Amino acid sequence: MPEPAFQDYYPENVSHCYGCGSLNALGLRIRTRWEGDESVTRFTPRPEHTAIPGFVYGGLLASLVDCHSTGTAAAAMYRQEGRAMDTLPAYRFVTASLHVDYLAPTPLGVELEVRGRVKRIEGRKVVVEATVSALGKVTARGEVVAAQMREGFGQV
Ligand SMILES: CCCCCCCCCCCCCC(=O)SCCNC(=O)CCNC(=O)[C@H](O)C(C)(C)COP(=O)(O)OP(=O)(O)OC[C@H]1O[C@@H](n2cnc3c(N)ncnc32)[C@H](O)[C@@H]1OP(=O)(O)O
User: Fold this and answer.
1) Where are the domains of the chain?
2) What is the C-alpha radius of gyration for the chain, rounded to an integer number of angstroms?
3) Homologous superfamily (CATH) for 6-148
4) What is the pTM of this model?
């Protein structure tokens, strides 16, 4: 049995996200785990994720960086407290800021590896940096500021 992924601990009401929700049938349904101090997601883009034939759409790479990093932010908060991700109080993070630099074209048809590192945890926010690699070469680099969701998120 593979180790559970961070996303396995997301409660149903936050499992509909296009990038990471296990309940979104049309989504990416990424799965992220710790490998030492780094978080890792592996994902193989599909033909519909094409930008230019043979190469991956940048928005897809941004989605991978985004959901990889918000998941990493939540996992990092639990880890800092020495708690399992299914324990209370629950941590839920949303994207406050997403920055991606595209360093080289990303080939389609191969597995991509997203690796994240926690840069800092400051109060209610976690800053995560991530790289996307194809065939061992880093093709995109990103940084996400993830902020803890407040009660009543989305209510105006
Ligand atoms: C078991 C585990 C479960 C995990 C479940 C995971 C669920 C996953 C769900 C799927 C998710 C998938 C991903 C998605 O698609 S999430 C969907 C896309 N994101 C959103 O819709 C978020 C919309 N924005 C907001 O709700 C609020 O503006 C937030 C919550 C972001 C902050 O408003 P809030 O009033 O709450 O807090 P605050 O203003 O005191 O800010 C807090 C800290 O953050 C810093 N800051 C704020 N903005 C920025 C910025 N632009 N650049 C840099 N920093 C920024 C700010 O300076 C402060 O830091 P500091 O000054 O204190 O140092």
Assistant:
1) 6-148
2) 15
3) Hotdog Thioesterase (3.10.129.10)
4) 0.96
